[in-house]
Fold each of these.
Amino acid sequence: MKKLAVPLLCVLAAVGFALSLHLVFEVAPLQWGKTGDGRLNGSSLFFNQKIFYWHVAHAFWLFGAVFVAGVSSIAFLITRKSTWDDIASASVDVAVAFGAVVLITGSAWAKAAWDVWWNWEPRLTMSLLLWLILVGYVLVRKFAGPSADRVAAGMAIFGMVGVPFIYTMVGQDSHPASGSGGVVATLGPGMRGAFWLSVFSFLLWFIALTITRIQSTRCERELRELRERGLDLGVLQ
Amino acid sequence: MKKLILLFLLAFGGAAFAQPGHPTYDVSAARKACTDAMNSDPIFAKDIIATVDKQIDQKTIDAHMDANKHIQKNEKHVIYSYAAMWIIAALFVAFLWMRQQALKGEIAQLRKDLDAAAKGGA
């Protein structure tokens, strides 16, 4: 059953994604921003609003991955069990990929909505900083030597603390708002199903990638430990 | 003989389908005649102006409709996003695969080292 988990998750994610594509392009209406008297206003994105279904879904699981990495790092620093370190490391790797998708799709959205690829608003800058912290984590793990796991754990906790700031900053500038009065809460009926199916499909994809990466990280660590033991016992040279 | 008849029919048919030449108009004379007619008959002038206005309005409406359709169906940024998403996913899967291959290589190396150590010990 364990061996089947990842392929099964991938298949379910693919089916969900295919269905969500059908809903996004065939069922969900184009987005129109209207003023109180029913006239179109400048916030209408029409077809380009469909970026939303991937951008926000990836942002959700980016935050999820950073949260998992942060909590696992705290657990690792308390217990010193390498399992927690493996989970944190795998989550950050996936978070780097999801973060890149969030930044690029967000940039395409900004170009469509405001005719700029990037501006240095607090939220965008914080998102970029979070992503750079995650990239820093990966580099620390690769190059920082024997204490890399503890330094990296500190960075993951630092990244996790940044997430609520980004979430609450959304809506303070030109970015659509989040939370109870935000875009997700006020989606129309045709858009809601497409959005939540997309979020669910990317959750399955996220879990499949994280499990695969955890298995790979665990194997790498066990192999490294075996080699070290072999060297210590004089079996290996 | 058959060939001659066929050739005759083809030549006759071609002549029958040939288009007569278009009559040539003197544009300046036609313009002058139209201007004179409009000056002498205000109702005719009004009709001509109304027709031209209507055509211009239709062109404006068509241009607006075209722009509207273009804006609504602007797919460029959606395509960018979709492509970026899959390129990153493919790169990540490739990264996982490469790590997996590296791991296999390390296991093979460890096995080789262990065999060598076992032989050395024996």
Amino acid sequence: MKEKINQIINKYNSDRSRLMDILLDIHDDKGYVDKNDINQLAKSLGISAAEVKETVSFYHFFSEKPRAKYNIYLNNSITACMRDRQGVKEAFEKACGITFGHVTQDSMFGLYNTSCIGMNDQGPAAIINDIVFTNLTPYRVVKLIEGLKEGKELRSLIYESYGDGNNADPDMQAMVNNNIRKGSILLNKNYKKFDVVKNELSKHSPEDVIQMVEESDLRGRGGAGFPTGMKWRFGRRVEGDHRVIICNADEGEPGTFKDRVMLTEYPDLVFEGMVIAAYATGADIGLVYLRYEYKYMLKYLNRILGEMREKNFLGKNISGIKEFDFDIRIQLGAGAYVCGEESALIESLEGKRGEPRDKPPFPVEKGYLNYPTIVNNVETLASAVRIIKNGAAWYSQYGTKDSTGTKLLSISGDCKFPGIYEVDWGTSIREVIEMCGAEKVQAIQVGGPSGMLIGPRDFDNLSSSDLMKWYKPSGMMVAEKFFDRKLSYSDLPTGGSMIIFNTERDLLRDVVMNFMEFFIEESCGSCSTCRNLPYIMKMKLEKILNGHGVRKDIDDLLTWGKTIKVSRCGLGQTAANPILSSILNFRHIYEQHVQAMADYDNTFDIVKSVEAANKYVGRNTEFHSN
Amino acid sequence: MNKTIKLKIDGKVIPAEEGQTIVQAAHANGIYIPTLCNFEGVKPKGCCRMCTIKINNRYMTACTTPAADGMEIENNTLEINDIRKSIIELLFVSGNHFCPSCEKSGNCELQALAYRYEMMVPRFPYTFPQKGVDAKSPKIIKDQNRCISCKRCIKTIEDEQGRKYFAFKDRGYTLEVVLDEEMAKTMTDEIAQLAMDNCPVGSILKKEIGYKEPIGTRKYDKKPIGSEFEV
């Protein structure tokens, strides 16, 4: 084993910044990293073992304990829970003979919970040895485990045919469905692959390209909505030996799966967007940060990149443009929602824990390996291609004045047609509800930006505070009174995930609790506020749900929520939003759970509370009142 | 000499040198901004959020934000002070900080801040986490129940090759600062003392010595925290 690990370390030139890849390769090989491996890594990389563990223990898909032959990661997103995740979970436990969080004695099966894996429209879903199994039912689980016990090959047990579109590609063979319900200018089969790089780019100067993107008013589609053209302009201006374009494909906001569909059906469009961004900004390094959950796409995506290199759409003097050198590498994540925040993503790319950085400096000034770095969302990059092809004026026909273009919505939950909808900005929530066939809607969770806005500090007249004003965290539970509000940067900004809950759902016990557990699980822990407060607020919510709450407890939650707004990143600042927005919009449900006329919890029963202790020591306590 | 700039804290104009952080500029001018994770000489990280201030209606951390000309900063306000107090309370309820029996009492920055911000009973419920005490190292005790994950030991305690003695483990609510097992074995008395001194609370304690300086005569027993900066 020692030899094998040495080979892996050498493959990455003992480069500490490639620790993620080194760990991923070791996991591919033996499934986990043990103490000896960690010591060996520490020695080779010139750091302490504790520092190696620091990275290992941060990511959900890394393990210091031996894992099984088949490692089953069952997604615990709210929509999976709404489709009998509990039954599926019990079926796995019964069939394997263990509970979640454990490995069977014969090391055959390991069962683990995992946060949203981007399959909300086809859950419950599980990742088993990097292969995705969707639409799980207890019956399917039993058959699956039986098959594996009989020694059948894992892929042969895929019970549905491969999914639609490119999901069936020989390099992917995934049982995943795109569920594209509405296309427009991005989800459009008329897209001529690499036409812009081949025929258009040489006609424009980099400056022209930036100007076109600026004129189109394209804004970041991750949710924060920073003007893309402005970001590119800054990136171009900052001095650096290299410049970096990063495609953020780490969508982890619960209920988001649009990037999965874009990368499945239109990877060329996304990569072409990266080439355009590189041309405009003068970048030579391209990185795609792909969430580990989408590892099943890796081979397929790398093939597309290979084809691009063959056709000189990547490499040196791209498309005959002199000195335009640019290439793209895909970096896999390892399971951490916070890495969708662009500076945490950069930390992760450098082989470290995904802890967001302090800003300023912004990534555009000092990003990956301290080079000027432009991080764009998958959807933003794809939109840029359409803009350069058809012009800014054409693009601004779509959407509204302050929010041009289209938005990909990932819709899941209680509706007839969950899936991907490409809508114009300005579409109202009510239209969305009608579009996806949802009835008796009680609430919708509208996903907000997980990331902090980026931008540079002192460019021209723009100050940090000017940049900061773009940042509008959302991520909220909306009630009917919001249904006529429009999806746009000035009204209701969103990263695109919408989860629908009908009137049958127990919003607090099921939905809000699930989201709070998500934020507690996914906090990086760096800020004292986000590390501790969501846990304490969840305790309080449990108190209310258990009937011990009073009105003051509801007000306490609202006031406590203020403290979390001082956290460093968007995840931290919005980590209490499930509770805060549900109190603001559904206070009546909270009121139903608390003791109406009481000022403090008076349900404490001292006799009952010492019952167990009394029984243990064989004592009968009498309580006297005087 | 760096360019001199001017900024305003709670209405008072103070000069600062370009390149200084807001905390540095404030402290140099007799204005106290409380900090916990900040440590002179190492890159700030903004972990504890104690130095939260408001600029243009936006919360920022004063230890990480460079001072800029014309900046207007809210520092000693009711709102900001209450946020700071709530952070202190949050740290108290998320660990087990039992001051009367702690070797660091009087030298503990968290305790001193609690006095300064007049914490009585925390507004949050105690969470009573069951964390361990690592006493394997020959030189120090690492009590996880008192650790506030400020990263000061991680950032400042290194060996000659730049390898770190301390590191984070896990994430979120279960995050801990752990000591490297191998490096702990060869830790010198000097390093152990430095680790204890750099820890703002009583999480890192040097073995075989205690209460050398009587309680009541220690740093913050005499003067409140922050008074060293205030005019």
